[in-house]
């Protein structure tokens, strides 16, 4: 039987506002290293959060997601890596409406050296990416809300009557995600209407 370990960080421990304590994740990752197989690191995972996949906002247009895949393929070829290593992830099994099991998701993300996509539940799987040395750590590129996306659902909250931008990131939720190199790219306003869809700063994505 396993054991559940509850960590209670000391109250004097300094941390930025709302940044989770990184030490909370070390026991989980150590447990996984002992109990789960480590897979060959040979994949790029593109989190597909486009129109029609979810109803919680922060969506991309399918056409732009396709362009991002093309940009990623070009970047991989430029450094001598196989562009066919890109796996599109939506949470569902390929050519099926059935959700992937935990084991399937773990295997996919544990084998990823790069993950990119909009902030959303799928990006939480970066927790399963392997740890390497400081030079070879896997990388995450997360598209996050900006002041330009104040009309996009999922990018703002209300406190009373005040509308506040909500730039959520798993870098913060994972206490800095010390096991990966983490990059943020702004999401931008697609148009002036309120809605679920934003765009991504493609120049920023290219630089990452």
From TrEMBL:
Gene Ontology MF terms: glycosyltransferase activity
All copies of domain Glycosyltransferase 61 catalytic, residue ranges: 97-132
Superkingdom: Eukaryota
Pfam family, one: Glyco_transf_61
Positions of transmembrane segments: none
Name this polypeptide is given: Glycosyltransferase 61 catalytic domain-containing protein
């Amino acid at each position: 039987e396993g054991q559940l370990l509850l960590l209670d960080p000391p109250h004097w421990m300094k941390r930025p506002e709302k940044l989770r304590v990184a030490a909370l994740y070390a026991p989980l990752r150590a447990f996984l290293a002992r109990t789960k197989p480590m897979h060959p690191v040979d994949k790029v995972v593109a989190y597909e959060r486009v129109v029609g996949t979810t109803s919680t906002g922060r969506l991309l247009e399918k056409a732009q997601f396709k362009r991002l895949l093309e940009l990623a393929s070009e970047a991989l070829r430029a450094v001598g890596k196989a562009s066919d290593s890109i796996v599109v992830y939506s949470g569902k099994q390929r050519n099926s409406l059935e959700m992937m099991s935990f084991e399937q998701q773990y295997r996919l993300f544990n084998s990823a050296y790069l993950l990119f996509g909009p902030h959303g539940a799928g990006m939480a799987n970066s927790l399963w990416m392997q740890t390497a040395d400081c030079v070879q750590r896997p990388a995450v590129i997360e598209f996050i809300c900006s002041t330009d996306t104040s009309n996009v659902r999922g990018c703002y909250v209300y406190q009373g009557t005040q509308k506040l931008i909500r730039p959520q990131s798993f870098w913060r939720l994972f206490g800095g995600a010390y096991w990966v190199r983490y990059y943020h790219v702004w999401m931008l306003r697609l148009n002036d209407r309120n809605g679920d869809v934003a765009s991504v700063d493609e120049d920023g994505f290219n630089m990452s």
